[in-house]
């Protein structure tokens, strides 16, 4: 499912909303989430999961072309932890497929 | 502080002009549509943010940490998140606590 398919699915579901508003709302939610993480803020959505930043310490890397050693600075990376309901539903669907 | 569904809905009310009830319903529907796609075994790709992928894990041996008893961990499907390039770049430079 892509962002445009998500917009279409939500427009079919929330029929009282104008298509343009659904588009704006999806973009707003994605921007709010990106912005929160860029500020180092966590995101918590019960039943879906939480997002937080993990720190990666500085390390020595290598330029793959020249083989030269380069110092890479520490950085933060986004991390997602699926919530209980999401974990269970995704897994139950698998059990049903296998049965 | 963390970004929550209530805050996302408030922003949709202020920025997109949905009324409060519509905004709350929209945010719930948003995460539900993503969960349903993952439940169907479908990857979700939100360009600019990242991809939610599904990974199949085989059965592996486990142990009850309390009793030490051996119990197999059943085969399961799990959700993983791969941040997109744009989100990685925005988050990388966050200079906050190194956790």
TrEMBL record, chain A:
<comment type="similarity">
    <text>Belongs to the bacterial histone-like protein family.</text>
</comment>
<dbReference type="InterPro" id="IPR000119">
    <property type="entry name" value="Hist_DNA-bd"/>
</dbReference>
<protein>
    <recommendedName>
        <fullName>Integration host factor subunit beta</fullName>
    </recommendedName>
</protein>
<dbReference type="GO" id="GO:0005829">
    <property type="term" value="C:cytosol"/>
</dbReference>
<comment type="function">
    <text>This protein is one of the two subunits of integration host factor, a specific DNA-binding protein that functions in genetic recombination as well as in transcriptional and translational control.</text>
</comment>
<comment type="subunit">
    <text>Heterodimer of an alpha and a beta chain.</text>
</comment>
<dbReference type="GO" id="GO:0006355">
    <property type="term" value="P:regulation of DNA-templated transcription"/>
</dbReference>
<keyword id="KW-0805">Transcription regulation</keyword>
<dbReference type="InterPro" id="IPR010992">
    <property type="entry name" value="IHF-like_DNA-bd_dom_sf"/>
</dbReference>
<dbReference type="GO" id="GO:0030527">
    <property type="term" value="F:structural constituent of chromatin"/>
</dbReference>
<dbReference type="GO" id="GO:0006417">
    <property type="term" value="P:regulation of translation"/>
</dbReference>
<dbReference type="GO" id="GO:0006310">
    <property type="term" value="P:DNA recombination"/>
</dbReference>
<keyword id="KW-0233">DNA recombination</keyword>
<dbReference type="GO" id="GO:0005694">
    <property type="term" value="C:chromosome"/>
</dbReference>
<keyword id="KW-0810">Translation regulation</keyword>
<dbReference type="InterPro" id="IPR020816">
    <property type="entry name" value="Histone-like_DNA-bd_CS"/>
</dbReference>
<dbReference type="Pfam" id="PF00216">
    <property type="entry name" value="Bac_DNA_binding"/>
</dbReference>
<keyword id="KW-0804">Transcription</keyword>
<dbReference type="GO" id="GO:0003677">
    <property type="term" value="F:DNA binding"/>
</dbReference>
<dbReference type="InterPro" id="IPR005685">
    <property type="entry name" value="IHF_beta"/>
</dbReference>
<keyword id="KW-0238">DNA-binding</keyword>
Automatic annotation (TrEMBL), chain B:
<dbReference type="GO" id="GO:0009893">
    <property type="term" value="P:positive regulation of metabolic process"/>
</dbReference>
<keyword id="KW-0804">Transcription</keyword>
<dbReference type="InterPro" id="IPR005684">
    <property type="entry name" value="IHF_alpha"/>
</dbReference>
<comment type="function">
    <text>This protein is one of the two subunits of integration host factor, a specific DNA-binding protein that functions in genetic recombination as well as in transcriptional and translational control.</text>
</comment>
<dbReference type="InterPro" id="IPR020816">
    <property type="entry name" value="Histone-like_DNA-bd_CS"/>
</dbReference>
<keyword id="KW-0238">DNA-binding</keyword>
<dbReference type="GO" id="GO:0006417">
    <property type="term" value="P:regulation of translation"/>
</dbReference>
<dbReference type="Pfam" id="PF00216">
    <property type="entry name" value="Bac_DNA_binding"/>
</dbReference>
<dbReference type="GO" id="GO:0005829">
    <property type="term" value="C:cytosol"/>
</dbReference>
<comment type="similarity">
    <text>Belongs to the bacterial histone-like protein family.</text>
</comment>
<keyword id="KW-0810">Translation regulation</keyword>
<dbReference type="GO" id="GO:0006355">
    <property type="term" value="P:regulation of DNA-templated transcription"/>
</dbReference>
<keyword id="KW-0233">DNA recombination</keyword>
<dbReference type="GO" id="GO:0006310">
    <property type="term" value="P:DNA recombination"/>
</dbReference>
<comment type="subunit">
    <text>Heterodimer of an alpha and a beta chain.</text>
</comment>
<dbReference type="GO" id="GO:0003677">
    <property type="term" value="F:DNA binding"/>
</dbReference>
<dbReference type="InterPro" id="IPR000119">
    <property type="entry name" value="Hist_DNA-bd"/>
</dbReference>
<keyword id="KW-0805">Transcription regulation</keyword>
<dbReference type="GO" id="GO:0030527">
    <property type="term" value="F:structural constituent of chromatin"/>
</dbReference>
<dbReference type="InterPro" id="IPR010992">
    <property type="entry name" value="IHF-like_DNA-bd_dom_sf"/>
</dbReference>
<protein>
    <recommendedName>
        <fullName>Integration host factor subunit alpha</fullName>
    </recommendedName>
</protein>
């Amino acid at each position: 499912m892509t962002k445009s398919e998500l917009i279409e699915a939500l427009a079919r579901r929330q029929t009282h909303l104008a298509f343009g508003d659904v588009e704006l709302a999806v973009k707003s939610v994605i921007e709010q989430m990106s912005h929160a993480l860029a500020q180092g803020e966590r995101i918590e959505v019960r039943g879906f999961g939480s997002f937080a930043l993990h720190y990666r310490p500085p390390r020595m890397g290598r330029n793959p072309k020249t083989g030269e050693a380069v110092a890479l600075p520490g950085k933060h990376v986004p991390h997602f932890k699926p919530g209980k309901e999401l974990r269970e539903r995704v897994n139950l669907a698998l059990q049903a497929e296998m049965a | 502080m963390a970004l929550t569904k209530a805050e996302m809905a408030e922003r949709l009310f202020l920025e997109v002009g949905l009324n409060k009830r519509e905004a709350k319903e929209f945010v719930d529907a948003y995460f539900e549509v993503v969960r349903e796609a993952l439940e169907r075994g479908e990857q979700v790709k939100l360009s600019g943010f990242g991809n939610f992928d599904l990974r199949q894990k085989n059965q592996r041996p486990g142990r009850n940490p309390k009793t030490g008893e051996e119990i197999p961990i059943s085969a399961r499907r799990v959700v993983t998140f791969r941040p997109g390039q744009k989100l990685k770049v925005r988050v990388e430079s966050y200079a906050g606590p190194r956790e």
